[in-house]
Prior knowledge:
GO molecular function: G protein-coupled receptor activity; olfactory receptor activity
Number of domains: 1
Family: Belongs to the G-protein coupled receptor 1 family.
CATH superfamily: Rhodopsin 7-helix transmembrane proteins
Helix content: over 70%
Subcellular location: Cell membrane
Number of strands: 3
Transmembrane segments: 26-48, 60-81, 101-120, 140-161, 197-221, 242-260, 272-292
Mean pLDDT: 84
Strand order of the largest sheet: 2-1-3
Oligomer: single chain
Protein name: Olfactory receptor
Amino acid sequence: xxxxxxxxxxxxxxxxxxxPEFRHTLFAIFFFSFFVTIMGNMIIIVIVCADHxxxxxxxxxxxxxxxxxxxxxxxxxxPMLGGLxxxxxxxxxxxxCITQLxxxxxxxxxxxxxxxxxxxxxxxxxxxxxxxNIIMNNQVCISVVIMAWLLGFLIxxxxxxxxxxxPFCKSTFVNHxxxxxxxxxxxxxxxxxxxxxxxxxxxxxxxxxSLLPTLISYTYIISTILKISSASGQRxxxxxxxxxxxxxxxxxxxxxxxxxxxKQTQAxxxxxxxxLMISVVTPFLTPFIFTLRNDKVKEVLRDGMKHCYHLFxxx
Length: 315
């Protein structure tokens, strides 16, 4: 039996098996996605801060969303890349595993709260535009962001604490590319049925608590857009919400499959694939979703590239 002595327990992250060539190919793919994710989201943060045309509440939220994507990716991918280059299994200490899981879940929870707030912001912008600056003033937006960060971290303290209070007597080999909660529960020799049920209820509250205002907001948004008589007016109204709506479908879809299920100890391959979608694919797509589907962001990027070109040409 492996007792919970934080100085003794080490977790062995199995990651991705296969030949060295296959692992090096995966390394190249994940490194490329990590680089694009960091650079793409950094560009969004920089242009939101630097260009006055993006100094609105929608882009204030977007800047925080991009920052969260950077943090989520940076929590998961660097250790995974290190494991792909190692001939032996990646080893993580007890404290490292706690830290990784806590940060991953906290950043993810914060992101979902923020996405729900962005949906309400779009609802006010489309359905009540004349009162938008009164309702969504600077003080409200800053308060919403602060509450999202605080709640994201506070909510995940007990689930992570309860997970690591379990005795790990079966093994400390984690068949995943990071310290995934469902597989950690599977390693315990105690009956985790009640804990899994509590975690399931918490996942339902977190996801549907932020999804509910999103669904209500988009119901009113779609209803309002359909009442607009001109096709150009409908397109303009929908263009302000299209990128956020796309992100909602991808983000919520993957997390509902992974976390909203009574049995947290799902098959390892299932967990691995869905976790890749959450920690690698979604942050990778975020810059493209919010640039290719947003006319104002595309305009700012075009002007920025023209400015850089003229500076380079002049030098």
